[in-house]
Amino acid sequence: MSKFERFEDIESWKKARELNKKIYELTNAEGFNRDFGFKDQIRRASLSISSNIAEGFERGGDKEFYQFLSVAKGSCGEVRSQLYLAYDIKYISREEAETLLEEASEISKMINGLMKYLRSSDFTGKKYK
Q1: Residue 33 lies in a domain
Q2: Are 43 and 78 in contact (CB under 8 A)?
Q3: Is it the case that residue 124 has pLDDT exceeding 90?
Q4: How far apart are CA 88 and CA 111, in angstroms?
Q5: CB–CB of 46/19 below 8 Å?
Q6: I need a labelling partner for 52 at 20 to 30 A (CA). Which of 5, 60, 84, 111 fits?
Q7: Each residue of 8-41: pLDDT tens digit?
Q8: Which pLDDT band holds residue 3 (cuts at 50, 70, 90)?
Q9: From its phi and psi, is residue 35 left (phi > 0), alpha (psi between -120 and 50) or beta?
Q10: CA distance readout (Å), 25 to 22, 43, 48, 54, 117
Q11: What is the CATH number of the domain that holds 93?
Q12: What are the Cα distances from residue 111, in Å, to 37, 64, 116, 128?
C-alpha cells in the first residue's frame, strides 16, 4: 500500500465524501424535512465517516489512525442501518436504498482493508507523516 501524503489521498475518504453529498441531497426530500431528528442523525453518521478518516490521519500515528478508522467503519454501519429504516418508512425508494447501501458497504470494506494493512505493519504507534 502506498504512503499517503494527505488524508485527501485516501480513497475511502474520497468515497465517504461522495456519500456525504448524496446523503445531504437525499435528506432534503419531503419525508426527511418533517423528521428533523432522523435527518440530523443520518447526516451526522455520514459525516462521521469522512471526518474520522481525516482526523485519524492528521493525528499522525498508526495506533490513533487505526482507532479513528474503527469509528469511521462503525459509522458506515450506522448509516446502513438508518438507510434501511429510511426505506422501511418510505422516505427513500428501493433503488435509492440499494445504491446507497452498496456505497456504504464498499466504503466499509475499504476502511477494513486499510485497518488490516495497519495491523500487518509494525503497528507501533509510529508517526507516518
Answers
A1: yes
A2: no
A3: no
A4: 27
A5: yes
A6: 84
A7: 999 999 999 999 999 999 999 888 988 999 999 9
A8: confident
A9: beta
A10: 5, 10, 17, 22, 33
A11: 1.20.1440.60
A12: 27, 14, 9, 18
Q: What is the pTM of this model?
A: 0.89
The verdict on residue 126 lying in a domain is no
Kindly write down the DSSP assignment for every residue of 23-55, as one continuous string: HHHHTTSHHHHH-HHHHHHHHHHHHHHHHHHHH
What value does the mean pLDDT of the chain take?
92
Count up the domains in the chain and report the number. Answer: 1
> Cβ-count burial of 101 within 10 angstroms (0-12 exposed, 13-18 middle, 19+ buried)?
middle
Q: What is the pLDDT of residue 62?
A: 86
Boundaries of domain holding 95: 10-120
Q: Is residue 2, in this structure, part of any structural domain at all?
A: no
Q: What is the pLDDT of residue 129?
A: 47
- Residue 3 in any domain: the answer is no
Alpha carbons 33 and 18: distance in angstroms, whole number:
21
Nearest-angstrom CA–CA distance, 76 and 73: 5
